[in-house]
Every structure is written in structure tokens, then in C-alpha cells.
Amino acid sequence: MSFKIAAWSANNPFPVVINAASASHDRSAKALIEGLARRQKATGKESYLIHTSGTSILGDHPYTGMPQDQEIWSDEKDNIFEMEKNYPERYGQRVTDVTVVETGLSLGVKTYIVVPPTIYGQGGGPFSTLSQQVPNLARLARKRGFAAVIESGKGIRNHIHIADLSVFYGLLFRAVIEQKTWLPSGPEAVFFVESGEHTWLQVSQGIADAMQKSGLLATNEVKSISLKQAAAEITGDNESLAEITLASNSRARADFARNRLGWSTLRGLDDFLNHFDAEIAAMLGELRG
């Protein structure tokens, strides 16, 4: 598989590849860069990789470790790459990010990492049109007959509408193609994109309200379940993964996007809190099946 990816990357006619596949598959990301290095050598023209990660790279362990609810990361002020490289816990997305940067440096391919948080809104592309966190919790609610929140649900996380995220990719793509002098790459090019913050309890309540309106739940009451229970039903008993992706604090600021790319959004917390009806409506066929 890695050989096929590298071969495709080497022979593709475009100078920029956007990797929007698994953020935790380091071998695929490495193969893309290896192929781009071959393309670069064959054509004599620079090739670039824009890799998609996620803010679970910042996720803490509020219930099994030390909560970090006051930690807010900036992509202009903090060295995100060094944090990932030296983080004491192995986590797939961090491993892949480090692989992307180090492979790019070793092969002379410029890399850029985009780190979105919870993505909401329905996409219009040919592949997956929904994100992960809300659908996973909606499926759990349908299975249990009530909307669940893991432990207290106090963890804080950022969000971004898919349309705003798409605008960010467009601005970054243009900057990469034009190779703006102010655009960093490699270790300094780890970029957040967010439009606000929510708690996990707000997510569960939004799901409960929307599913009750749709007749999928008898009540909009949210009940707490343990981390162990959530892991058993969502992440194959992987409690660490459940905690990081569905219960943690993961807070960032998209300073580079706002200050350098000229990116902005008019969507805030209210837009996020009001999107659950549409998200559940998009899942009705699955949830009623």
C-alpha cells in the first residue's frame, strides 16, 4: 500500500497534495512525502504536502490523569511540533505529525499541518459528509435510549464549521502555491483553525434536544456514563482514546490564520449550538434503521 501511495504521489501532475485521509496513519503520510520527493527530483520543481491532523493532539486526561483545562495553545506563540515530539504518551496523530515534519525535512519536501478541532456542518464533497464526534455520540444515544455524556462533561474543546475550514484550506493552498515569504514550513507550520469553544456536556445536550424533536428519544435528559462504559461501546475498550477524543480538554487559538492568512469567521458558539437539528436530520436514515 505504501508503495502504491508513493508511486501515485510521484507521478501526480500537481505540486500540492492535501492529505485528508487518516490522521493516525504515519506510513501513508510518509509514503506521500517520499513520492513528492521523487516528483521533485524528476521535475526540478518543488512539491508540497498539506497534512490534516486534529486537536486531539492537545487532549489531556481529565479523569485518569491531570486535567489541563486552562491550557490554551497558540500556533504563533507555542512550539506545537516540539510538544508533539516530546510528549510522554504515544498517540497516533502526534506520531503521524512528527513523521510528516521529519520526513519532509530529511527529503527536502516542504510540509504544512492543519489541525482542525470538532468539525460540524454537512460537507458537500464526494466522500464523508459528516464528522465523527457528534455522530458517534448520537449512535450511542440511539443505542442506549438516552443521550450520554462521559463523566462530568466539563472538558472544553474548539469547533469549526466545515465551510469555514474549507476557506482556510483555500487560503493556505494559495499561500503555499505562491510561496509567500512569511509562510513557514516544517516544524513551524502546524496551524490551528477554530471559531470558538464548547463543552462536551453542551454537545450531549444538543444531541438530546435534537433527537427528542426527531422522535428518536423519548426524553432530552442527558445522563452521565463512566469512561469505561463509553470506551466499551465506542472505542473498543480503549479508555485512553475515548478520554482524549470524547472527554478531554483540547483548547487552541488560530492566531496564524487570523493574523497572517487573513482568515475569519462569522460563526460562533450560537451557530455551533444550533446545528444539532441539521446534523441529526442528516443521520435519520441510519438512526432509524
Automatic annotation (TrEMBL):
GO cellular component terms, A-Z: cytoplasm
InterPro entries: NAD(P)-bd_dom_sf, NAD(P)-dependent_oxidoreduct
Molecular-function GO terms, alphabetical: aldehyde dehydrogenase (NAD+) activity
Protein name per the record: NAD-dependent epimerase/dehydratase domain-containing protein
Biological source species: Penicillium nalgiovense
